[in-house]
Amino acid sequence: MKHLTKLPNIGTNIFSIMSALANKHDAINLSQGFPNFKSDPLLKDLVSKAMQNGYNQYAPMPGNLELNKAISRKFERLYGTSYHPETEITITAGATQAIFTIISAFIRQDDEVILFKPAYDCYEPAIELHGGKTIAIQLAAPNYSIDWNAVREKVHSKTKMIIINTPQNPSGTVFTEADMLALQDITKNTNIIVLSDEVYEHIIFDGNKHQSACLYPDLKARSFITASFGKTFHNTGWKMGYCCAAKELMEEFRKVHQFNVFSVNHPMQKGLADYLQEPNHYLELSSFYQEKRDLFLRLIKDSRFQFQAAKGTYFQVLDFSEITQEYDVDFAKRLTIENKVAGIPLSVFNENNKDDKVLRFCFAKTDETLKKAADILNNI
Ligand code: PMP
Ligand code: GLN
Protein backbone atom coordinates (compact mmCIF):
# COMPACT_ATOMS: atom_id res chain seq x y z
CA MET A 1 0.00 0.00 0.00
CA LYS A 2 1.09 3.56 -0.66
CA HIS A 3 0.04 6.56 1.30
CA LEU A 4 1.19 10.12 1.64
CA THR A 5 2.01 10.96 5.24
CA LYS A 6 0.08 13.85 6.75
CA LEU A 7 3.00 14.60 9.09
CA PRO A 8 6.17 14.30 6.99
CA ASN A 9 8.42 15.91 9.60
CA ILE A 10 7.28 13.98 12.64
CA GLY A 11 9.14 11.00 14.07
CA THR A 12 8.97 9.40 17.51
CA ASN A 13 8.81 12.09 20.19
CA ILE A 14 11.85 12.88 22.32
CA PHE A 15 10.20 11.71 25.57
CA SER A 16 9.73 8.18 24.22
CA ILE A 17 13.25 8.16 22.78
CA MET A 18 15.00 9.32 25.94
CA SER A 19 12.95 7.18 28.33
CA ALA A 20 13.62 4.10 26.19
CA LEU A 21 17.34 4.93 26.11
CA ALA A 22 17.39 5.45 29.88
CA ASN A 23 15.69 2.08 30.42
CA LYS A 24 17.99 0.30 27.98
CA HIS A 25 21.12 1.63 29.67
CA ASP A 26 19.78 1.47 33.21
CA ALA A 27 20.23 5.23 33.63
CA ILE A 28 18.51 7.49 36.15
CA ASN A 29 15.62 8.86 34.14
CA LEU A 30 15.23 12.61 34.63
CA SER A 31 14.10 12.98 31.01
CA GLN A 32 10.36 12.38 30.53
CA GLY A 33 8.33 14.36 33.04
CA PHE A 34 6.73 12.01 35.55
CA PRO A 35 7.08 11.49 39.30
CA ASN A 36 8.86 8.35 40.54
CA PHE A 37 7.12 8.45 43.90
CA LYS A 38 3.68 7.16 44.81
CA SER A 39 0.57 9.30 44.69
CA ASP A 40 -1.73 9.72 47.68
CA PRO A 41 -3.28 6.35 48.72
CA LEU A 42 -6.47 8.24 49.57
CA LEU A 43 -6.98 9.15 45.91
CA LYS A 44 -6.52 5.53 44.86
CA ASP A 45 -9.01 4.46 47.56
CA LEU A 46 -11.54 6.99 46.32
CA VAL A 47 -11.19 5.70 42.75
CA SER A 48 -11.51 2.08 43.94
CA LYS A 49 -14.59 3.01 45.95
CA ALA A 50 -16.08 4.68 42.89
CA MET A 51 -15.61 1.41 40.99
CA GLN A 52 -17.16 -0.61 43.84
CA ASN A 53 -20.04 1.85 44.00
CA GLY A 54 -20.97 1.39 40.36
CA TYR A 55 -19.36 4.29 38.49
CA ASN A 56 -18.47 1.94 35.67
CA GLN A 57 -20.55 3.06 32.72
CA TYR A 58 -20.16 6.07 30.46
CA ALA A 59 -19.81 9.37 32.25
CA PRO A 60 -21.88 12.23 30.82
CA MET A 61 -20.13 13.65 27.74
CA PRO A 62 -18.96 16.90 29.43
CA GLY A 63 -17.90 15.05 32.59
CA ASN A 64 -19.25 13.73 35.87
CA LEU A 65 -21.15 16.75 37.19
CA GLU A 66 -19.65 16.42 40.68
CA LEU A 67 -16.18 16.78 39.17
CA ASN A 68 -17.18 19.71 36.96
CA LYS A 69 -18.64 21.38 40.06
CA ALA A 70 -15.48 20.72 42.10
CA ILE A 71 -13.38 22.31 39.32
CA SER A 72 -15.72 25.27 39.15
CA ARG A 73 -15.32 25.81 42.90
CA LYS A 74 -11.53 25.61 42.53
CA PHE A 75 -11.61 28.46 40.01
CA GLU A 76 -13.76 30.54 42.36
CA ARG A 77 -11.49 29.85 45.31
CA LEU A 78 -8.18 30.43 43.54
CA TYR A 79 -8.94 33.05 40.93
CA GLY A 80 -12.21 34.63 42.05
CA THR A 81 -13.89 33.84 38.75
CA SER A 82 -16.39 31.24 37.71
CA TYR A 83 -16.95 28.73 34.94
CA HIS A 84 -20.36 27.14 34.71
CA PRO A 85 -19.92 23.45 35.58
CA GLU A 86 -22.42 22.26 32.97
CA THR A 87 -21.60 24.47 30.01
CA GLU A 88 -18.07 25.78 30.44
CA ILE A 89 -15.98 22.87 31.76
CA THR A 90 -15.25 19.57 29.98
CA ILE A 91 -13.31 16.64 31.40
CA THR A 92 -10.72 15.25 28.98
CA ALA A 93 -8.29 12.36 28.56
CA GLY A 94 -5.37 14.44 29.82
CA ALA A 95 -4.47 17.91 28.62
CA THR A 96 -3.16 16.45 25.36
CA GLN A 97 -6.65 15.47 24.22
CA ALA A 98 -8.03 18.85 25.26
CA ILE A 99 -5.32 20.64 23.26
CA PHE A 100 -5.82 18.47 20.18
CA THR A 101 -9.57 18.91 20.33
CA ILE A 102 -9.35 22.71 20.72
CA ILE A 103 -7.08 22.95 17.68
CA SER A 104 -9.27 20.52 15.75
CA ALA A 105 -12.43 22.48 16.53
CA PHE A 106 -11.11 25.86 15.39
CA ILE A 107 -8.13 25.62 13.02
CA ARG A 108 -8.81 25.46 9.28
CA GLN A 109 -6.64 25.49 6.19
CA ASP A 110 -4.22 28.46 6.23
CA ASP A 111 -5.24 29.73 9.67
CA GLU A 112 -2.22 31.03 11.53
CA VAL A 113 -1.36 30.02 15.07
CA ILE A 114 1.26 31.97 16.98
CA LEU A 115 3.27 30.10 19.58
CA PHE A 116 6.51 30.61 21.46
CA LYS A 117 9.56 28.40 21.25
CA PRO A 118 10.86 26.39 22.98
CA ALA A 119 7.35 24.90 22.87
CA TYR A 120 5.89 21.69 24.26
CA ASP A 121 5.67 19.20 21.44
CA CYS A 122 1.96 18.49 20.99
CA TYR A 123 0.78 21.83 19.57
CA GLU A 124 2.48 21.98 16.19
CA PRO A 125 1.52 18.55 14.77
CA ALA A 126 -2.14 19.22 15.63
CA ILE A 127 -1.99 22.57 13.80
CA GLU A 128 -0.36 20.93 10.78
CA LEU A 129 -2.91 18.10 10.64
CA HIS A 130 -5.68 20.67 10.30
CA GLY A 131 -3.94 22.62 7.56
CA GLY A 132 -2.99 25.50 9.84
CA LYS A 133 0.28 27.35 9.81
CA THR A 134 2.46 27.68 12.90
CA ILE A 135 3.98 31.12 13.36
CA ALA A 136 6.78 30.43 15.81
CA ILE A 137 8.41 33.15 17.86
CA GLN A 138 11.75 31.91 19.12
CA LEU A 139 12.64 33.09 22.63
CA ALA A 140 16.24 33.54 23.73
CA ALA A 141 17.89 31.51 26.49
CA PRO A 142 18.36 31.85 29.40
CA ASN A 143 15.45 34.18 30.23
CA TYR A 144 13.05 33.21 27.43
CA SER A 145 11.24 36.53 27.85
CA ILE A 146 8.73 37.72 25.27
CA ASP A 147 9.01 40.92 23.25
CA TRP A 148 5.31 41.69 22.86
CA ASN A 149 5.99 44.28 20.16
CA ALA A 150 7.40 41.46 18.05
CA VAL A 151 4.22 39.48 18.73
CA ARG A 152 2.05 42.44 17.72
CA GLU A 153 3.84 42.56 14.36
CA LYS A 154 2.89 38.94 13.66
CA VAL A 155 -0.81 39.42 14.36
CA HIS A 156 -3.05 40.02 11.34
CA SER A 157 -6.33 38.89 9.82
CA LYS A 158 -5.21 35.26 9.38
CA THR A 159 -4.21 34.90 13.03
CA LYS A 160 -6.75 32.52 14.51
CA MET A 161 -5.06 31.42 17.71
CA ILE A 162 -2.23 32.23 20.11
CA ILE A 163 -0.92 29.41 22.30
CA ILE A 164 0.69 30.23 25.62
CA ASN A 165 1.99 27.93 28.33
CA THR A 166 2.66 29.15 31.85
CA PRO A 167 4.44 27.82 33.90
CA GLN A 168 6.33 26.82 30.78
CA ASN A 169 7.56 23.39 29.76
CA PRO A 170 10.50 23.00 28.97
CA SER A 171 12.04 26.33 30.09
CA GLY A 172 10.58 26.49 33.61
CA THR A 173 9.69 30.18 33.14
CA VAL A 174 6.40 31.84 34.08
CA PHE A 175 4.36 34.67 32.62
CA THR A 176 4.14 37.89 34.62
CA GLU A 177 1.10 40.10 35.02
CA ALA A 178 2.68 42.42 32.41
CA ASP A 179 2.86 39.52 29.92
CA MET A 180 -0.82 38.75 30.40
CA LEU A 181 -1.84 42.39 30.10
CA ALA A 182 0.18 42.71 26.89
CA LEU A 183 -1.50 39.59 25.47
CA GLN A 184 -4.91 40.91 26.50
CA ASP A 185 -4.16 44.21 24.81
CA ILE A 186 -2.93 42.61 21.56
CA THR A 187 -5.97 40.37 21.23
CA LYS A 188 -8.58 42.96 22.22
CA ASN A 189 -11.28 43.49 19.57
CA THR A 190 -10.02 40.53 17.51
CA ASN A 191 -11.44 37.05 16.92
CA ILE A 192 -8.26 35.42 18.16
CA ILE A 193 -8.67 32.43 20.46
CA VAL A 194 -6.06 32.00 23.18
CA LEU A 195 -5.11 28.47 24.16
CA SER A 196 -3.64 28.85 27.62
CA ASP A 197 -1.93 25.62 28.60
CA GLU A 198 -1.82 25.80 32.40
CA VAL A 199 -1.04 22.18 33.30
CA TYR A 200 1.57 23.36 35.84
CA GLU A 201 -0.68 25.98 37.48
CA HIS A 202 -0.09 24.45 40.93
CA ILE A 203 3.70 24.22 40.55
CA ILE A 204 4.95 27.79 40.87
CA PHE A 205 7.76 28.93 43.13
CA ASP A 206 9.18 31.75 45.26
CA GLY A 207 5.79 33.11 46.26
CA ASN A 208 4.80 34.01 42.69
CA LYS A 209 1.14 33.92 41.76
CA HIS A 210 0.05 31.85 38.77
CA GLN A 211 -1.12 34.17 36.01
CA SER A 212 -4.12 32.28 34.72
CA ALA A 213 -5.82 33.63 31.61
CA CYS A 214 -9.07 33.56 33.59
CA LEU A 215 -7.84 36.44 35.80
CA TYR A 216 -8.12 38.89 32.91
CA PRO A 217 -11.75 39.37 31.80
CA ASP A 218 -11.12 40.06 28.12
CA LEU A 219 -8.59 37.22 27.92
CA LYS A 220 -10.92 34.89 29.78
CA ALA A 221 -13.65 35.53 27.22
CA ARG A 222 -11.43 34.32 24.35
CA SER A 223 -9.38 31.63 26.12
CA PHE A 224 -9.41 27.91 26.58
CA ILE A 225 -7.55 26.91 29.72
CA THR A 226 -6.17 23.37 29.75
CA ALA A 227 -5.24 21.45 32.90
CA SER A 228 -3.90 18.02 33.83
CA PHE A 229 -4.65 15.94 36.93
CA GLY A 230 -1.60 13.87 36.02
CA LYS A 231 0.68 16.78 36.90
CA THR A 232 -1.23 17.86 39.97
CA PHE A 233 -1.88 14.50 41.62
CA HIS A 234 1.21 12.54 40.53
CA ASN A 235 -0.68 10.20 38.20
CA THR A 236 0.52 10.98 34.69
CA GLY A 237 -0.51 7.48 33.60
CA TRP A 238 -4.17 8.12 34.33
CA LYS A 239 -4.37 10.67 31.50
CA MET A 240 -7.05 12.76 33.15
CA GLY A 241 -7.48 16.49 32.59
CA TYR A 242 -9.99 19.17 31.72
CA CYS A 243 -10.50 22.40 29.88
CA CYS A 244 -12.59 25.50 30.49
CA ALA A 245 -13.88 28.23 28.20
CA ALA A 246 -16.82 30.54 27.68
CA LYS A 247 -20.02 28.71 26.72
CA GLU A 248 -19.97 29.56 23.00
CA LEU A 249 -16.38 28.35 22.64
CA MET A 250 -17.08 25.23 24.68
CA GLU A 251 -20.05 24.36 22.46
CA GLU A 252 -17.71 24.16 19.48
CA PHE A 253 -15.19 22.16 21.51
CA ARG A 254 -17.82 19.59 22.46
CA LYS A 255 -18.91 19.09 18.86
CA VAL A 256 -15.48 17.52 18.32
CA HIS A 257 -14.93 16.09 21.81
CA GLN A 258 -18.05 13.90 21.58
CA PHE A 259 -16.61 12.17 18.52
CA ASN A 260 -12.95 11.84 19.38
CA VAL A 261 -13.46 10.45 22.87
CA PHE A 262 -17.09 11.14 23.87
CA SER A 263 -16.38 10.92 27.61
CA VAL A 264 -13.50 9.82 29.82
CA ASN A 265 -12.82 7.30 32.59
CA HIS A 266 -15.80 7.49 34.94
CA PRO A 267 -14.52 5.97 38.23
CA MET A 268 -11.47 8.22 38.09
CA GLN A 269 -13.69 11.24 37.56
CA LYS A 270 -15.72 10.34 40.64
CA GLY A 271 -12.56 9.69 42.71
CA LEU A 272 -11.05 13.00 41.62
CA ALA A 273 -14.29 14.84 42.43
CA ASP A 274 -14.16 13.51 46.01
CA TYR A 275 -10.43 14.21 46.35
CA LEU A 276 -10.81 17.81 45.18
CA GLN A 277 -13.06 18.56 48.14
CA GLU A 278 -9.85 19.14 50.12
CA PRO A 279 -8.05 22.20 48.63
CA ASN A 280 -4.77 21.34 50.40
CA HIS A 281 -4.36 18.48 47.95
CA TYR A 282 -3.38 21.00 45.31
CA LEU A 283 -2.37 23.98 47.45
CA GLU A 284 0.57 22.07 48.95
CA LEU A 285 2.09 21.25 45.59
CA SER A 286 4.19 24.38 45.05
CA SER A 287 6.03 24.09 48.36
CA PHE A 288 6.46 20.34 47.86
CA TYR A 289 8.16 20.87 44.48
CA GLN A 290 10.04 23.99 45.56
CA GLU A 291 11.79 21.85 48.18
CA LYS A 292 12.75 19.37 45.47
CA ARG A 293 13.99 22.11 43.14
CA ASP A 294 16.05 23.67 45.95
CA LEU A 295 17.50 20.33 46.99
CA PHE A 296 18.50 19.49 43.41
CA LEU A 297 20.09 22.90 42.82
CA ARG A 298 21.89 22.85 46.17
CA LEU A 299 23.32 19.45 45.34
CA ILE A 300 24.65 20.51 41.92
CA LYS A 301 25.73 24.06 42.77
CA ASP A 302 29.43 23.20 42.43
CA SER A 303 29.01 21.26 39.19
CA ARG A 304 30.08 22.65 35.81
CA PHE A 305 26.45 23.13 34.78
CA GLN A 306 25.11 26.71 34.87
CA PHE A 307 21.52 27.47 35.75
CA GLN A 308 18.83 29.92 36.68
CA ALA A 309 16.39 28.36 39.12
CA ALA A 310 13.13 27.23 37.50
CA LYS A 311 10.26 29.56 38.39
CA GLY A 312 7.64 26.86 37.90
CA THR A 313 6.98 23.30 36.56
CA TYR A 314 9.02 20.32 37.76
CA PHE A 315 11.75 20.87 35.21
CA GLN A 316 15.15 22.49 35.65
CA VAL A 317 17.15 23.66 32.64
CA LEU A 318 20.94 23.24 32.90
CA ASP A 319 23.44 24.92 30.58
CA PHE A 320 26.32 22.59 29.68
CA SER A 321 28.36 24.95 27.49
CA GLU A 322 31.29 24.91 29.92
CA ILE A 323 31.49 21.14 29.61
CA THR A 324 31.23 20.46 25.88
CA GLN A 325 30.26 22.04 22.59
CA GLU A 326 28.53 18.85 21.40
CA TYR A 327 25.06 19.10 19.83
CA ASP A 328 22.63 18.89 22.76
CA VAL A 329 20.91 15.74 21.44
CA ASP A 330 24.26 13.97 21.17
CA PHE A 331 25.29 15.13 24.63
CA ALA A 332 21.95 14.00 26.15
CA LYS A 333 22.39 10.55 24.59
CA ARG A 334 26.02 10.25 25.66
CA LEU A 335 25.13 11.33 29.20
CA THR A 336 22.49 8.59 29.30
CA ILE A 337 24.66 5.83 27.85
CA GLU A 338 28.02 6.64 29.47
CA ASN A 339 27.12 8.48 32.68
CA LYS A 340 23.71 6.89 33.36
CA VAL A 341 21.61 9.99 33.80
CA ALA A 342 19.02 11.05 31.22
CA GLY A 343 17.73 14.54 30.42
CA ILE A 344 15.92 16.13 27.47
CA PRO A 345 17.78 18.28 24.91
CA LEU A 346 15.95 21.58 24.41
CA SER A 347 16.80 21.99 20.73
CA VAL A 348 13.96 19.64 19.79
CA PHE A 349 11.49 22.26 21.07
CA ASN A 350 13.18 25.17 19.28
CA GLU A 351 12.71 26.69 15.84
CA ASN A 352 15.11 25.02 13.38
CA ASN A 353 16.44 22.96 16.30
CA LYS A 354 18.33 25.95 17.69
CA ASP A 355 20.93 24.53 20.05
CA ASP A 356 21.53 26.66 23.16
CA LYS A 357 23.53 23.88 24.86
CA VAL A 358 20.91 23.24 27.52
CA LEU A 359 19.23 20.10 28.81
CA ARG A 360 16.03 19.78 30.84
CA PHE A 361 16.01 17.61 33.95
CA CYS A 362 12.84 16.53 35.76
CA PHE A 363 13.07 16.89 39.54
CA ALA A 364 9.74 15.17 40.30
CA LYS A 365 11.79 12.38 41.89
CA THR A 366 12.50 11.02 45.35
CA ASP A 367 15.26 12.81 47.25
CA GLU A 368 17.31 9.63 46.96
CA THR A 369 17.06 9.66 43.16
CA LEU A 370 17.93 13.37 43.03
CA LYS A 371 21.02 12.74 45.19
CA LYS A 372 22.19 9.91 42.98
CA ALA A 373 21.65 12.01 39.84
CA ALA A 374 23.46 14.99 41.40
CA ASP A 375 26.47 12.81 42.25
CA ILE A 376 26.75 11.92 38.59
CA LEU A 377 26.23 15.47 37.32
CA ASN A 378 28.87 16.78 39.75
CA ASN A 379 31.45 14.44 38.25
CA ILE A 380 30.97 15.59 34.68
N1 PMP B 1 1.06 20.56 28.17
C1 PMP B 1 2.26 20.57 28.75
C2 PMP B 1 3.01 21.86 28.79
C3 PMP B 1 2.79 19.41 29.31
O1 PMP B 1 3.99 19.43 29.87
C4 PMP B 1 2.03 18.23 29.23
C5 PMP B 1 2.53 16.91 29.76
N2 PMP B 1 3.63 16.91 30.39
C6 PMP B 1 0.79 18.26 28.63
C7 PMP B 1 0.33 19.44 28.10
C8 PMP B 1 -0.04 17.02 28.51
O2 PMP B 1 -0.65 16.67 29.70
P1 PMP B 1 -1.38 15.25 29.87
O3 PMP B 1 -0.35 14.28 30.30
O4 PMP B 1 -2.43 15.50 30.90
O5 PMP B 1 -1.96 14.91 28.55
N1 GLN C 1 4.84 16.12 29.39
C1 GLN C 1 5.89 15.22 29.67
C2 GLN C 1 7.23 15.93 29.60
O1 GLN C 1 7.29 17.09 29.25
C3 GLN C 1 5.94 14.07 28.72
C4 GLN C 1 4.69 13.62 28.10
C5 GLN C 1 4.96 12.61 27.04
O2 GLN C 1 5.75 11.70 27.24
N2 GLN C 1 4.36 12.80 25.92
O3 GLN C 1 8.22 15.32 29.88
Automatic annotation (TrEMBL):
Matching InterPro entries: Aminotransferase_I/II_large (IPR004839), Kynurenine-oxoglutarate_AT (IPR051326), PyrdxlP-dep_Trfase (IPR015424), PyrdxlP-dep_Trfase_major (IPR015421), PyrdxlP-dep_Trfase_small (IPR015422)
Cofactor(s) the protein needs: pyridoxal 5'-phosphate
Keywords linked to the UniProt accession: Aminotransferase, Pyridoxal phosphate, Transferase
GO MF annotations, alphabetized: kynurenine-oxoglutarate transaminase activity; pyridoxal phosphate binding
Any Gene Ontology CC annotation: cytoplasm
Family classification: Belongs to the class-I pyridoxal-phosphate-dependent aminotransferase family.
Protein name: Aminotransferase class I/II-fold pyridoxal phosphate-dependent enzyme
